[in-house]
Model the fold of this input.
Amino acid sequence: MDIIVLVKRVPDTSEADIVFSPDSRSIVEKDLVFDINESDKYAVEAAVQLKEKLGGTVTAITMGETSAEDVLRRCLATGIDRAIRLTDPAFTGSDAAATARALAGVIKSMQYDMVLTGVQANDSLQAQIGVTVAGMLGLPHSTLVNKLEINGNIAKVHRELEGGLEDVLEVKLPALFTIQTGINEPRYVSIMGIRKASRLEIKVSRLSDTGLDASSAGEPGSLVKLEKLYIPPSTKATEILSGTIEEMASKLAGIIKEKGGLS
Done:
């Protein structure tokens, strides 16, 4: 069972004062604590548990600069076999689609039975990368997975739904799954494990390794351009919409258009 895990390095902003960069398109990272994305920890643990049970290899992939290697070292210390850092100036400004396109480009040349990633990233909360990568690779996929069982080339997945409901599916491998927190208990990473992982090689892949050109990466290849980050002003004004779903949707669209969200 060869597994690929997609992970992301994210800042812990829960108790930090957020300061925006001069262009208001990013946050100042100085003094922030970074770690592997929360739900990605569970995806890593799920992959390592499957490897221990079924054999095979696990490869972790992240997109980022040299600083992103710390999350890959953590993955290696956990039991991941190989790590790849996807780095290139052409990736600057990538939205979810451009990021997924680059990740899919690297994965296409690899041997795998399964791709795992966390449900969503703590910083963007978009939950787009996993399903977009699956679409670009032509893989069947399932999201919000909180239980995963493998029988040959069939994965039996349990999905968390609203209201305490659960969806159970059988998916033919190879496939991609986004892992929900709580599926397992991520193992403790020892200092000895981290020291050992610090000596392991991390492969660096560039734009040329993805099969893409510069027009398909970064801002040129993005469908969404980040204009400005800001903290919404505090307000007590609240409007409760009523009516049928169609009526409420129409009212909501009108409000968004009035505020400049729709042209």
Observations:
- The chain has one domain: 2-216.
